[in-house]
Design goal:
24% helix; 8-stranded mixed β-sheet; YbaK protein; 172 residues; globular
């Protein structure tokens, strides 16, 4: 599959794979506060995405509710990171997900054809009426139903791995 380099290519991919998506255009947003102010009234859970790496250079994309406050030390335990977590570099983001900072999105996982990035989702997403995320551009918001989101993950060859980031993990 060719690398999805822009929003239009991704939206075409979704359509070709029968993933029902509703996309809204808005001015570029760089923060959650900007997003809330500029996106208008789009129902559903709006996401925040953390591109992270651990001490062994394992990469993670953690997707949560835009209003969530995440304790990286607890998250590292919950996702079994090797060593502490830090934010991945812009170069690693581009190399693994084919995107730049500001456009990080769960939809970018489609570009990780080698499965180098572990996708981890906040359990809150499983109960959302709709999941809203950027389609590789911070000038748009794409809304997916639970069914559409599951179909997207299946077409990308990924499974949903849900965790509760606030609870201590049970050692395995």
């Amino acid at each position: 599959m060719p690398l999805m380099k822009d929003s239009d290519a991704l939206l075409s991919y979704l359509k070709e794979n029968n993933v029902d998506a509703y996309t809204f255009d808005h001015p570029a947003v760089h923060t959650v506060d900007e997003s809330k102010a500029l996106r208008g009234d789009i129902p559903g859970l709006h996401t925040k995405n953390l591109f992270l790496r651990d001490g062994k250079k394992n990469y993670f994309l953690f997707v949560t509710d835009e209003d969530a406050t995440i304790n990286l030390k607890q998250l590292a335990k919950n996702i079994r990171a090797k060593g502490g977590l830090s934010f991945g570099s812009p170069a690693a983001l581009l190399e693994t997900l084919g995107i730049s900072p500001g456009a990080v999105s769960v939809l970018a996982i489609v570009n990780d054809t080698q499965s180098r990035v572990k996708l981890v989702l906040d359990r809150k997403l499983a109960n959302a009426s709709a999941i809203n995320c950027h389609p590789l551009s911070n000038e748009r918001t794409t809304s997916l139903s639970q069914e559409a989101f599951a179909r997207f993950l299946a077409t990308a060859g990924r499974e949903a791995v849900y965790i509760d980031p606030d609870k201590e993990s049970v050692p395995r």
